[in-house]
Amino acid sequence: MTPATPLKLLLLEDRPEDAELTLHALRRGGYAPIGPRVDSEAGYLAALSPDLDVVLADYNLPQFDAPRALQHLRECGFDVPFIVVSGTIGEETAVAMMRDGATDFLLKDRLGRLGEAVGAAMEGRRLRREAEQTATALRASEARFRALVQHAPDLIAVVQADGMVRYASPSVERILGVPADELIGTDGFAMLNEGDVQWMRSTVAATAAAPDGSATVEGRLQHRDGSWRWIEAITTNLLDEPSVGGIVVNAHDITDRKHFEEQLTHQAFHDALTGLPNRALFLARLDHAFERARRQGSTLAVLALNLDRLKAINDSLGHPTGDAVLREVAERLTRHVREADTLAYLGGDCFAILLEDVPDATEAVRVADRLLVQLQRPLQAEGRDLVVGATIGVALGSRPDPAADHLLRDATTALSEAKARRPGSYIVFDEGLHARAVARLELEGELRGAIEREELRLHYQPIVDLANGRITAVEALVRWEHPKRGLLAPGAFLSLADEAGLTVPIGTWVLEEACRQLCEWQQSTPAPLVDGIHVNLAAAQLHQADFVGSVERVLEKTGLVPTALRMEITEQILVEDLRATARSLRALRDLGVRLAIDDFGVGYSSLGYLRELDADVLKIDRTFVRELGHDEASAKIVRAVSGLAHDFGMRVTAEGIETDEQWSAARTVGCDLGQGYRFARPVSAGDVEALLTQRAVGSRA
User: Fold this and answer.
1) Where are the alpha helices (DSSP H) in 210-318?
2) Cα distances (angstroms) measured from residue 532 to each of 25, 256, 382, 592, 613
3) At what angle do helices 142-150 and 114-140 cross, to 10 degrees?
4) What is the pLDDT of residues 57-72, one digit of tens each?
5) Taking the complete model, does pTM exceed 0.70, yes or no?
6) DSSP letter at 396?
């Protein structure tokens, strides 16, 4: 058994377990390592010595790193091999370290090569020292040269200018699976990949043409088993050296490095979950396709696709199921686009498809139709049959445009419009969509500063007792006094506020201003002008962690009696999450705040949840009130709902009363209160105060 070779080692490593793995790898490589392990700059400087055989350094330590350690070694002038052993170093970093003087680098998961690397490094140092000491003798002694080359780990060959191999080191068999003697007298270029031959011939010719010429080149050589090995070769002109008489090729096997680079490139441009191209690769291909289309006069199209129900699936079934849905959608979409097209996953619930050489919009629409049909079919995910659905925006690249990525922007704009109009459909982009999108963005930017600039206003609409026309309360309705566009109704900006995350601050402002105004009215006369004020409540406000506390603070700040505040919540919000909503509403009731259910009968009309809520007022939606006096079915529905509401202790308000006939009919079917243009439109605080002093509006029905 060959005894282990003593190795004077300085190990720069902060993790004991990694240090032990490194020492174990050295022992397996035939070495007996002797020397300290250090993890600080001071310890490293204290241990540096010219007698060391090798320094092994982790790249990153808590307070020190390999580049600094290498700098210290160079500054000391010690000829000691420096090898980086790290689990995180990338190729660019490794190349930079090698350029700065590092001998080699290894990844910690490749420690099996450590012994060989240390041997090569020590051998390299020995060669350097011998070369410095006996440079003249080495050039004169071909035998000495051959002895050294025979033991080099890299492939060393001597070729003629035409590529014929005159010598190959034994390492060629390890790298290419071919014994060295079989290569002598053969054409070295014949082993190259076809794509690398011309470049290698040019490099060898240029080296041969220049005395003492040298060049570095990469290429692929074929292994005996048919695979390709990447090599990095340095060619040196020694044609005039009598002991060589040829061009020396020193080649290092970089196959593992190339594969690692390919993996990094793939990861950088592909999504790990779906395996599809990501946004960066999609935009790169779009840019190239756009340039080709402009040169050839052809048309391309971009489809932006959004999965309609992925969020609901994630929220209800969990993200593992959502991930399975994404993988299945990716596979299904891949089967239904052309091989020449690019399907990309942009993240979240968004995909994009690049269609090249489409004759017109009809073909792009046909593809969109086909994909929508496919995504309406159930798919299997985690053992469940799920329908995810999709909405698509289409943009064509036939119009002049200065930037390819505008196509994706336009497709996304069309997608947003399609989602707003009818999910599950598609829309083809036109310039009108872009103009509206830009205007919407500008309006959003202006809306963000509307509160600080005091541009929001409250208008108030009376709520009257249908029996006598007396005003019992008012509803606060927000308006935006836009500096250029004038007074904007809620429909012009509240949906935008919701998308921009401004619903809560606007809602808080409305609540505080409404409470302040009611207090002012109540304090202006001995007898209160109005009993209470209604304030609309948005879903985003209900979802605040401290929503009830924020209401309590507003009441304390304004001094309003809680029973004078009536907070309105739509039936739609109740139906979406009754249990969570009911908890917050009960907490409001505990404060003394009164509750009203607004827009009753819209969309998901249901009476079952009324018993879950201790509400004070039920507001019948205007769609039922409009038909009173004309449609007996509507009258029966309102009469039944009013009776049930009264059984639960609620008063009933008819919304949207515009005529005396509707006023009379609403009283007949059991409504207690009314609201609508018959009594008054929403008006400013000053105008509504004049109405309040009258105590009643209109004559009794």
Assistant:
1) 255-269, 279-296, 310-317
2) 82, 77, 53, 13, 20
3) 170
4) 898 888 899 899 889 9
5) no
6) E
